[in-house]
Structure formats: structure tokens, C-alpha cells
Amino acid sequence: MSLPLHDTEAEGASNREFVAARVDGIFVLLDHLGVLQFSGEDAETFLQGQLSCDVAGVSLRSSAYGAYCSPKGRMLANFLLWRGEAGFFMALSRDILPVVQKHISKFVLRSKVKVSDASDGVVLAGVSGPHADRILQSAFPDFPAKPDEVRHAPGTGTVLRLRDGRLVLALAASAAPALLRQIEGSIKRANAGIWRWLEIRQGLPLVTASTQDQLIPQMVNLELIGGVSFDKGCYPGQEVVARTQHRGKVKRRMFLANVAAPAAAGDALYSDDFGDQASGMVVNSEASPDGGHDLLAVVQTASREGSTVHLKSLGGPALRFLALPYAVA
Description:
Elements: H1 7-24, E1 26-29, E2 33-39, H2 43-48, E3 63-69, E4 75-84, E5 87-93, H3 97-105, E6 114-117, E7 122-128, H4 132-136, E8 150-153, E9 157-161, E10 167-172, H5 176-184, E11 188-190, H6 192-201, H7 238-246, E12 252-259, E13 268-271, E14 280-287, E15 293-300, H8 301-306, E16 309-311, E17 320-322
């Protein structure tokens, strides 16, 4: 059993992980995520009528971001979805998985679909860096080369390439220990907070218990990363999502920012132009290697453009906005 690190030792370890994430690459166990499995012959049809993304367009060789919404269009979860021989798999925040499973299962009715928690049978890990492909190709001879591509290795698991080049592994629990030891011997292991920071820097939100049922997909730019289909049929909240899109400019959007003080998901944001009325919310936040916390913040676009946004109160520290890797309309 390892001894706990003192503060200075922990800070040094964290800094080394940040350096590795930026330069050499890292390996992370994604234990903040859980996995729901949807199996049965009606799984595709069922999910197509429940989720915001085009489930029919997700093949054995592709993945998609998406959301599961309430009838009011507010996200009960967002996720990364892929298809395997045993059905569809959804990676979402572990702290909301039981609620989402219970809620979506109510709509199965007579459909031939089974909704199960596969978190114990599927081990999620993330790998990034210039050597990631070489390290993993021995375990996955058929390897994804392009963004959003997915490949499978029977008995081992699935590898998904994200649009920024990082890789997500969904490993069979029986095969995971040996493969993870192999990876850890070749690339530095980091804590899950480093991966969550990379997600923030890529503008990829994660709905957690603190933000569940509060944000519509466009507020977190989900349609900008391919998580909303406007050509498919109905799903819960579809009318609200479509109406928001057809109105043109979204009044509240998610932006990347840095703040000097600690911040947490669900923290309220205030701006000079809205006074004592909250004008936004922190979606995700992690410590930044450059100091303070980097965060994804949903704020009024007018406040982002012409005012100063503060954390927790008008007297709180001001947010310094940074550039996202994609354009926000």
C-alpha cells in the first residue's frame, strides 16, 4: 500500500502529469465514468427515439456524442455512444448512471431491449500522446486512424479515437489487467482529473449530478460537436431543441475560461450586466497547470461579449475567457 503524498509532493506529481499530458502522453483509468448497455433486437429503434444523436448512423466502426433529455429539453445526461456486437454502449458520468438507467428503462415497455449497467464488465481507460498508437496496436491490430472511428478486438475490447486524437479503451474486464499493465509500463499513468482537464480544453462537457436537468444541448455546444441530429424523428425534448435551433443565435452558450479561485460544477456565475441575478453556471472545472482552474462555463453570450463574468457572486473572481478549439456561433 502506498503512503499518501504531502501537499508539495502531490503538487509536484500533478505538475509532472500535466507535462506528460501536453508532451509525452498519459494513460488514465476513467473511473469517473460508467457504462450503460442496450441489448436486444429493438435497441437501435428504441435509442433512436430516446436520444438526441442519430443512433442509426452509429455503426460498428463509428461513435457519436449525444444527450438524453427530459420532455423540457434539459439534459438528464450526455454521453459517448458506440455499437458493439452485443448492442450499444453509452459512457456517461458514473454519479448519474443509476438515475438515467431507471428513467430510460421506463420507456422500454414492449420493446425487445434490455438496459443494464455494464460498468463492472467494461473497464474504461484513456490514452493520449505520440506513442499511444504504437503501444496499443499490438492489442488492436485493426486500429482506428480517423477521428470518431471505432475498432474491436474479440476478447479484448474496443478502442475509440476521439476527434482530437486521444483514444478511449472499453476493455473486457477479464482482459483489462494484463493490457493495462502493458500500457502502464510504456506510458505515464495520470489521475482522472488530468483527463477531465483535457476534455475541458477540448470543449467537451460532462453532465454530472450537479448540472443534471438544467441545460439544453445547445447551451453546452452539443450540436457543434455532432451530438444533435435535426433530421431524425422525435425524441424527448426534441421540440424544445429544434425550436431553440430555429430561433438562430442561442442566448446562453458554453465557453472556456480560467479563474483564479477553485470552482466546481454547478457554481453560479454573475455578470455586471445582470446584477444580482445569476447569468450562468459552471459545467465542469479542473485545476490548470497554468494556475487557477480551467472551466467550461455556460453564460449569457451578451455578458461574454460586453461585460465581466464573476464566480459565485458579483464580488467574486473574474473569469478570463480562452479560445475553444471550435467556433461558437
